[in-house]
Amino acid sequence: MKITFLNIFLLSLSCFRLTRLLVFDKITVFIRRPFFDEIKEENDNGEIEIYYLPKKKGIKKFFGELLSCYWCTGIWASAIIVTAYILFPIYSSPIILILAIAGLASFIEAIVQFFIEK
Fold this sequence. Notes:
By secondary structure, this protein is mainly α. Helices cover 68% and strands 12% of the residues.
């Protein structure tokens, strides 16, 4: 199998987007919720702040620690994306393309927000 620069670029963007989706996005909070304990604290201004800490034991602790680490989740997301691309290119290519486009769009949005705030 020949991997071109374009393949690497698309795979990289899709891995980036999948990792952000799993670790940060609100739409996947239902995936993270079973692996975290929610801690509420009042700050100096009287506002309630919510923190999420990985569960204390077992497999839930493992996945909680994994999902709280962007770099760790990125390795697994990359492994899933690349394996799917190699084993099932027909089925995985549309998903990879969608994630890559969403990843590139998030970079563009960050750039736009940077210039709007200045």
